[in-house]
Amino acid sequence: MNRPRLPVPGHHPRRPGSGTGRSAPHSAQQPVVEGAGIWYQISAGAYKGYWMGEAFPNVFLRAEYLATDYRVQRTLTFRTNTDIPVYEFGTNGVVGSTRNVRYATATTADFDRRAIVNGRAMCRISAGELAGYWVPANQVIADGA
Questions:
Q1: If DSSP codes are grouped into helix, strand and coil, which group holds residue 1?
Q2: How far apart, in whole angstroms, are the C-alpha atoms of residue 40 and residue 54?
Q3: pTM of this prediction?
């Protein structure tokens, strides 16, 4: 698929409330997933018609998408002696709270959902002290892999 790309490398949407005067690009379409990542077509503003590749933390859709629910809970393992952030999200993908966890021994948790949340692959923990929190998938070992 041929698509124009944004002419400004590293361009990213304005953070809400930053007051910089730049406007965030609007994407009216669902993300397009191809072999080279996730792309959004900009639907308004100076970049209307261009495609923007998702690149966390600079460019991402603030939401949860491409979700997979598991009827049978899966298990993830936290890496030992490593600070790992976990997130609780509110409406529209806004981070409600963040915690860092660190375990001296291999610690497991059940998860029931995997999704792209705010531009990152994440797993939702479904049981225990972290139930309801999301952990970045690259920070844990999921299903023994």
A1: coil
A2: 8
A3: 0.70
